[in-house]
User: Fold this.
Amino acid sequence: MSGQANKGVVAAGHAVTAEAAVEILAAGGNAFDAIVAAALAAPVVEPALTSIAGGGFLLAAGPSVEPVLFDFFTQTPRQRRPKEAVEFHAVLANFGATTQEFHVGMGAAATPGMIPGLFHVHRRLCSLPFERLIEPAVVKARDGVVVNDMQSYFLDILRPIFTFSAPAARTFGPNRDGTDPLAQPGDTVRNGDYADLLLTLGREGERLVRDGEVAQQIARMSAEHGGHLTVDDFTHYKVVERTPLAVDYHGRRIVTNPPPSAGGLLIGFALRLLAGGPAPDPGRLVEVMRLTNQARIDSAMADQGAAAAAAKLLDPNFLKRYRDAILGRPRTSRGTTHISVIDSTGNAAALTSSNGEGCGLVVPGTGMMLNNMMGEEDLHPGGFDAWATDTRISSMMAPTLILDERPTALGSGGSNRLRSAILQVLINLIDHTMAPEDAVAAPRLHHERDFLNIEGGTDPATIADLTQHYPDHRVWPGRNMFFGGVHLAAADGTGAGDPRRGGVVRRAPA
Assistant:
C-alpha cells in the first residue's frame, strides 16, 4: 500500500457504507467480509438506491480465490396473478427538467435476491461470523444517521414512492408519525425495525426469508394487496455462480459481469473494438459507443451489418452467448449503488445492487422496502402483464475488476450510462495512466439513440469537434449524476468515490 500502511481501501456511495467495510477490515475481516457488511449498511443511508429486498451482483477474486461472479439479482415470479387482481400503480418522479413514470404496488415486486446472495457469499468466502458483519448496520440504523444533500435529493426525486404508503413515510421520514415530509439535509433518520431484522437474520439465518417469518409476511402482503409473490418464489430462488467475462486490454486483464446481464458484455465488446489501437481520442471513443449501441441485443444483433461486425470482433462462443443468454430476457437498469473493496492481501470485491426505485411498500416490522423490478418499462416491451415467469432479470450492472499485479475494483450506478462510465474510467486508468481520482473525475461522454451527451468540463476544442460530427447533442453545464457514479478501490491503497453521486473513499488503518 502506498503512504500510510493500512488493511485495505473502500469506495462507496456514502461514508456510512464505506465505514462499515472499514470497521470489518480493521477487525481482521477480508474484503468479502467487508463488502457484505457494507451492503447491509447501504440501505440505512442509500434507501433510494438499494435495499436488501432488491438484488445485485458481486464480483470476487483474490490470491486464493478464482474470479467468480455471484448473481443474486431479482427473479420474475413463478406464477402470474390475473391482471384484474394486480395492484400496480403509475407514479411520476420529478427530476426538475423532466418527469419520469415509475410503477409501484405489490404487483411491481419481483423475487428479491440480496439476502440469499449475501449469505451465499458469506459461506463461500468470508472469515468472520455473519453476526459480526451486521453490527455496523445495526448500530447506524438504531442510533440514526444524518441525511446529507445527495441522499435527500434522491429521496425527493422519488417522493411519490417513498410517501406511497404511511409505513414508507414513517420509515424514511425524520419522525415516526408520518406527518412530516421526507428527510431533509441535516435531519436524523432512525430505522429500528431494520436493525431488528438484521439481528434476527444473524440469529436465524437466511431461512427467515426462505420459508420463515419474513417470507410468510411478504407472501401475505402479496396475497392481500395484489402481488404475484408466494413462499414458493423464495424457497426456489437460487444464487448463481458464473464465470466472469474476461477481456485483455492493452496489457491488463479485465473481468466483468457475464451474460445474462448485458452491461459487462457491452463493455467487453467496446474494449475489443479498442484493443490493438492507440489510446482512443474522444471522437474514436464516441464512435465505439455508437457501434456498441448497434450491437445491443434488442436492436443491432438483428441487423446483418452489425452482426457481421460482432462476429468479426468476437469469437463464435462469445457471440452465441450474446445472442442466446440475453435475447428475450427481461432487463432492468434503474437506480443503483456500488461498493468496491480491496484488502491488504490482494482480495478484491466489487458489488453493484439495486432496488429499482422501490415499490412503495415496507414489509411490516422489517424497515425494508420491496423492489419494483416488475414495474420497469424495459422489463415489459410487450406490456406489463406479458413477462416470462421464473426468469432471472437481466441488468446493465457491471461490477468490474482489473486483475494483475495491481488489482483494481470498480463499478457504477447510472442506468444505461454506467457502462460508458466504467469504460471511460478503464481507458483513463490504462491508456492515460491517470490516478484513480483523476480517472473518475474526468468529464465523460455518452452516446445513445443517435444523441451525444457531453459532460461539462470537456475541452472546448473537443466539444467543437464532436458537435460538428454529432449535431444531435447536449453540452451539460457541469458534472452530473446522469454520467454515472464510479467508485474505485486499488491495491496500492488509492481509490476514488465519484463526486457525481456522493462517493467517498475510506482506508482501514493497520
